Amino acid sequence: MNIDWSKLGFHYTEPDYIVRAGYHDGKWEEPYATKDKFLHLHVSATCLQYGQEAFEGLKAFRGVDGKIRIFRWRENAKRMAKSAEGLYMAPVPEELFGKAIRLALEKNMDFLPPYGTGATLYFRPLLIGTTPRLGVGPGRDFEFIVIPSPIGPYYPGKFHCTTFVVNRHVDRAAPYGTGTFKVGGNYASSFRATEPAHAEGMDCLFLDAKYHRYIDECAAANFIGIKKPTPNPSLKGGESRIEYLTPRSSAILPSITNDSLMTLAKDLGMKVTRRHIRLEELSEMSEAAACGTAAVISPIDKVIDPENNRIYRLSDEPGPVLTKLYHALKDIQYGQAEDRHHWCEVIEI
Ligand code: PLP
Ligand code: COI
Question: Relative to the CA of 293, which ligand 1 atom is closest?
Fold first, then answer.
């Protein structure tokens, strides 16, 4: 194996094995490992014709103690079941999901990056409809696949700021559409906003599709903002707590990273608020970031709103609050801090 772990970005590296399990006649088969990365798929499969496809993303970490930890995989299994229901697909049972992830790890141990390299083993579970069908409707057959790949940071640089740009001509997902599901269509339909942003070295900040007033989410990650304590004479010492703000929306993916960070923020004594956040409120924030499995915490230095000729400047360097949260999360994932919330499963191989 000749991988320069510290140079990996968020790109596919071909693993030895993937794991697959089919669903036919109302039953899931046992997951199995195969070296074959190609599918023999009918051209009329519902995933190709009508977009019956959902995916997930989760990571395994080699800890400071040499142990392997998989982070909150049950939450990914639950979310994939919701995505499956959202697209009329057979949900993958939680235990099958876990078995497939463990098998994918076991069969690809050479691809688990060593501790200290900044790289991790990412799993991309995929669920597709395979029934041939031309009449508009869902299929009855499905394939669950786990594709492992070692990866580095999603945004270049380990913990470094990214600029986001607002685009009012492309919406990521409609209220009560498929935004809360992790389905490929949400990403394909965003490309016409994200690709031009990437070409300029930025990424997209999506606003709510109905009013274009509130922050929905960052391209492939949730949004978090940090508000400095405001003087509050009714509190002793005159200061209130640091506020961790994140959008409430019926069109965004419920991020497992964001959920974890909200818990850690509360542990650190912050006030955590989930509500509609107007774009202009960026000017009241001292720090902001994109957060997700791939993005971890990716601080935002500025948000550009070209139509209103406005630039919201946050901080040029990762700020103190987000830095603290970043380390609190990473320390749990790498076995460097007590896993008080029982988020990691230690895998013995
Ligand atoms: N939002 C979108 C659109 C995503 O693609 C992701 C990535 O999975 C997230 C948010 C973050 O979710 P999580 O923290 O569960 O990875
Ligand atoms: C993740 O964070 O795991 C994602 O899937 C986001 C993106 C890379 C699609």
Answer: 16
CA dist 155 and 159 (Å) reads 8
Which residues have C-beta atoms less than 6 Å from ligand 2? 57, 220, 292-294
Which is it for strands 162-166 and 296-305: parallel, antiparallel or unpaired?
A: parallel
pLDDT, position 233: 66
At residue 304, what are phi and psi to the nearest 5 degrees? -100, 130
Q: Could you give the maximum distance between any two Cα atoms of the chain, in Å?
A: 68
pLDDT of residue 235: 64
At 160-197, the pLDDT tens digits run 899 999 999 999 999 999 999 999 999 999 999 999 99
- Say whether 43 sits in a helix, a strand or coil: coil
Atom of ligand 2 at shortest range from CA of 57: 3
Token output for 231:
């003087």
Between CA 175 and CA 180 the distance in angstroms is 9
Q: Per this entry, what is the length of the chain?
A: 349
Is ligand 1 within 6 A of the CB of residue 218? no
Please state, in angstroms and rounded to a whole number, the distance separating the CA atoms of residues 72 and 7: 26
Supply angle C-alpha 40, 38, 185, rounded to 5: 85
Pairwise CA distance, residues 301 & 105, whole Å: 36
pLDDT at 239 over 60: no
Please state, in angstroms and rounded to a whole number, the distance separating the CA atoms of residues 44 and 168.
35
pTM: 0.96
